[in-house]
Amino acid sequence: MTHPFRNVAIVGVHNTLQARQLPGHTSLSISTEAAHGALADAGLAMSDVDGVVGEFAGEMILGSAGGPRSRRITRFGIPMLLDAAALITSGECAVVLVAAGGAGLYTDRSATAPWTRPSNEFVAPYGMFTAAEFALMARRHMIRFGTTHAQMAGAAAAIRNHGAANPQAVFFGKGPVTAADVMASRPIAEPFHLLDCSMTSEGGCAVVMVAADRLTDLDRMPVWIHGAAGDTFGPAYVVAPVFDGGGSGDDAAGWVGRRAARRSLAMAGLTTDDVDVAEFYDPFSFEIIRQLEAFGFCDEGEGGAFVEAGHTAIGGRLPVTTDGGTMSFSHPGINAQQVQRVVRGVQQLRGECPSGQVPGAEVAMCTNGGSGALFCDVMVLGSGRP
Questions:
Q1: b or e along 22-49 (b: 16 or more beta carbons within 10 Å of the residue's beta carbon)?
Q2: Strand, coil or helix: what is 143?
Q3: Cβ atoms 160, 215 nearer than 8 A
Q4: 318: DSSP letter
Q5: Contact partners, residue 228, CB within 8 Å, separation at least 6
Q6: What is the pLDDT of residue 170?
Q7: Whose CA is closest to 363, among 315, 299, 318?
Q8: pLDDT tens-digit profile of 99-155?
């Protein structure tokens, strides 16, 4: 049986400058800058593109002043990339651009970013916001398995130290950070402290995919999609999440992404032992521990010990979120922050990371979302053609 993504190659990636604020930029302008950067990385031009995916797909096609192109106005990271891959596998397109960015969205500079303050009637009366929703899931895990504040803080410290070493990160140079530092930062939503949480920033990123027969025209190492799948229990941030919601065992909302990870690895013909680097989405420290367990890198209740043993740090058994993630690298809006997990995975497999390069990395697992948001998307990338 032919692999569904055998003819889809990722040949270009780019992150723009990431900063707490990018004066003069809009989400469209920074997405456009990212698009041109990814095309340059691939050795292509906008005139080569016949498909665009993203929130601003229509605007980019209009701004390019070219002929007709296919478009998918998709959001949320990995689903955007899968729509791009589908345009190629269907034969509709040969070169597809995926671009995303956030700038000028967070202008009031209050304690929580606007997208973390749901206003619907099911959560607003109770003072719910994103940190509180993820905290509910973390607290249930702590009660059930004995996971500690220190273990979660250790997960955050490892990621923040990856960002502190990354010259492209917003928090470059702001380290080293210890678990004690994380626990000493101000409380946000028990059990989370400030340094357990992602930051806010601005920036853009983009990915270019091509049909495999175009590779003969390009002088660029391709990276391949070996597997991908997604799980959801409903719309994010509409109802307060419950760890045991949805059913028991593997069907519990607290293990969202387990089914997706299993299907992605099965599609790839791989196991967790084959994964060299994990570019996990990191909205809060607990999500790292939870994903390690949900995806099968360790047993339920053992994620905290896995982190304490140093396995998620650079040089460990499974380096996690090696650019600093949303805690230290960047957290620009809703879409770019999720595409950036795949951008970093591609950089790892190319051996082109400005910091935190995992020697000889051949397989990367990238994720989006998390238990507090009731969804999790998984993508497995490989340096070899599936």
A1: beebbbbbbbbbbbbbbbebbebebebb
A2: helix
A3: no
A4: S
A5: 5, 78, 81, 82, 264, 267, 377, 378, 379, 380
A6: 98
A7: 318
A8: 999 998 776 666 666 667 777 777 777 778 899 999 999 999 999 999 999 999 999
Give me 241's structure tokens. Answer: 């999440």
Cα–Cα distance measured from residue 313 to residue 44, given in angstroms and rounded to the nearest whole number? 35
Contacts of 127 (CB under 8 A, 6+ apart): none
Q: Which two tokens stand for residue 258?
A: 């387990």
Cα first-last separation, the chain: 11
Closest CA to 97 of 43, 150, 57: 57
- Token pair belonging to 173: 């140079």
Contacts of 34 (CB under 8 A, 6+ apart): 14, 15, 16, 99, 100, 101, 204, 205, 206, 336
Query: H or E segment at 263?
Result: helix 258-268
pLDDT for 108 equals 66
Alpha-carbon distance of 224 to 335, in angstroms, equals: 21
How far from the centroid of its chain's Cα atoms is residue 386's Cα? 22
The rounded distance, in Å, linking the Cα atoms of 353 and 184 is 31
d(CA 308, CA 316): 11
What pLDDT, on a 0 to 100 scale, did the predictor assign at position 31?
97
For residue 374, with 0-12 CB atoms within 10 Å meaning exposed, 13-18 middle and 19 or more buried, which class applies?
Answer: buried
Which portions of the chain are predicted below pLDDT 50? Answer: none
pLDDT at 293: 98
Predicted confidence at residue 243, as pLDDT, reads 95
CA distances from 373 to 115, 132, 159, 179, 201 (A): 12, 11, 21, 25, 20
> What whole-number distance in Å separates Cα of residue 378 and Cα of residue 230?
6
Q: Considering the entire predicted model, what is its pTM? A: 0.95
C-alpha to C-alpha distance for 276 and 317, rounded to whole angstroms: 8
CB atoms within 10 A of CB 65: 8
Residue in this structure with the two tokens 């671009």, named with its chain if needed: 99
Whole-angstrom Cα distance, residue 257 to residue 263?
Answer: 10
pLDDT score at 109: 61
Please give the backbone phi and psi of residue 223, each rounded to the nearest 5 degrees, phi first: -120, 145
